[in-house]
Write a structure and sequence with these properties.
The protein is α+β, with helices and mostly antiparallel strands. Helices cover 55% and strands 15% of the residues.
Length: 425
């Protein structure tokens, strides 16, 4: 998830939350401000009905919650004509939320007394506004929580990948320490053998001695001078030793493949395959186009570097480090890698490559070779991954032709490119 996406989602949630709060305030305020006019109108309507029709069944419409009557008491002379609610024994006091109205209506020889209490803010209307505002605010809160969880999961994944890389580095360091310890042990054993006092040995004993020394030393670099051991094993005058059957050359030939195998170390590169490069670039280009961002592709080549060699492994790990990625590096050729970086124009990509060039060169210093970098950028164009790779490859070829310029970017004339697209349609 990019920073731009997080910012957009955060802004959307904040706007949603603000709208919810404003709806709550506006709904309650509107109900309160219209309350005074509404209760006066409803009371006058009730009085008019009493004057025109004294049938109490016609008054039931005023018990509806829409009218906002908290209490209605109508007396004919001293007798109760209409009471709402039926068990109304509570005497309301006028307040900021309750408005009291009372009047007398004379008709012939009868006098009607009307007492009412009306609500300036109707409970059902207030509850409806608060309920909807609560749902909106709760939705905004849940969206914010989901966003935080998504960010935390991505950070945790990044940390786990970083820990895996650090553990791999620690493991490599431990293996190097163990290798050095074994080397020191083998060197000491070889020195002890070479310093032993010469003594008369039979061919069988001499062969056993040679084999035991060679088995204890797993490194070809730690060779022991077996010829000197043979020369020092001088037979006495009383013993006649022949070496007709002692073929040291065949013994060395038998052990040679094992020694060569020990020196041939293959490193597993933690990078994506060449086949995955196009698919990944297509996704990155679509994403960059939708976000109106640029995207640059880097092809990094070290002539003479062998695939799965220590130098290739060191270079791939250094690329991950400087590009701040754990899974964005791809094999390009046996001696080169490909990696993309968003939000970089072609000029910015060239400056970035120049800033990391020294570190990349140091990682392959044992080859005495200079890394060469070819760069291409989307440059606001709608193009395919294959086209982007081709442009970077052409830039890489040009950099190889001039060692004085190991970093070359493929610059595009946007106006000419648009004209080309227009004419090709």
């Amino acid at each position: 998830m990019t920073k731009k996406t997080v910012k957009s989602l955060t802004a959307g949630i904040l706007v949603f939350l603000v709208v919810s709060v404003l709806y709550l305030i506006a709904g309650l305020l509107a109900e309160f401000l219209t309350g005074k006019t509404r209760v006066e109108h409803n009371f006058n309507e009730l009085v008019l009905d009493i004057q025109n029709n004294f049938d109490k069944t016609s008054f039931t419409k005023y018990t509806d919650k829409e009218k906002g009557f908290a209490s209605i008491k109508i007396y004919k002379n001293t007798d109760s004509l209409f009471i709402f609610p039926l068990d109304n024994n509570y005497e309301y006091q006028e307040s900021s939320l309750i408005k009291l109205f009372s009047t007398e209506i004379k008709s012939d020889n009868d006098v009607y007394h009307v007492q009412t209490a009306l609500q300036l803010m109707r409970p059902y209307k207030t509850f409806s506004v608060i309920q909807l505002a609560f749902i909106l605010i709760l939705t905004a809160t849940l969206l914010a929580g989901a966003l935080l969880i998504a960010i935390a999961i991505e950070e945790k994944k990044g940390k786990l990948n970083l820990d895996a890389v650090e553990n791999a580095d620690d493991s490599n360091e431990e293996e190097e320490v163990e290798t050095e310890a074994l080397t020191d042990t083998a060197e000491r054993k070889a020195l002890e053998v070479s310093q032993e006092k010469p003594e008369t040995k039979s061919p069988e004993e001499l062969m056993d001695k040679i084999k035991s020394v060679k088995e204890e030393s797993p490194f070809e670099a730690n060779k022991i001078d077996y010829d000197s051991i043979i020369d020092n094993a001088q037979p006495s005058e009383d013993e006649m030793i022949t070496f007709d059957n002692f073929n040291t050359e065949s013994t060395e030939k038998q052990d040679q493949p094992a020694q060569e195998a020990d020196n041939t170390v293959s490193y597993t590169l933690n990078v994506n395959s060449r086949q995955e490069l196009n698919e990944s670039l297509e996704r990155e280009l679509k994403k960059a186009s939708s976000n109106e961002e640029d995207l640059s592709l880097f092809l990094i080549k070290v002539p003479g570097m062998q695939k799965n060699s220590k130098e290739a492994y060191d270079l791939s790990e250094k690329i991950k480090e400087v590009f701040l990625t754990n899974d964005g590096v791809f094999e390009y050729e046996d001696d080169s890698f490909a990696v993309s970086k968003s939000n970089l124009s072609i000029d910015q990509a060239e400056d970035f490559a120049d800033s990391i060039f020294a570190e990349l060169k140091k990682s392959v210093s044992t080859l005495n070779q200079t890394p060469f970098i070819g760069i291409s950028s989307r440059s606001t164009r709608m193009l395919s991954a294959e086209r982007l790779i081709k442009e970077a490859d052409e830039a890489l070829v040009h950099s190889l032709e001039d060692p004085a310029l190991p970093i070359i970017g493929f610059h595009v004339d946007i106006e000419k490119y648009r004209e080309f697209l227009k004419n090709s349609q």
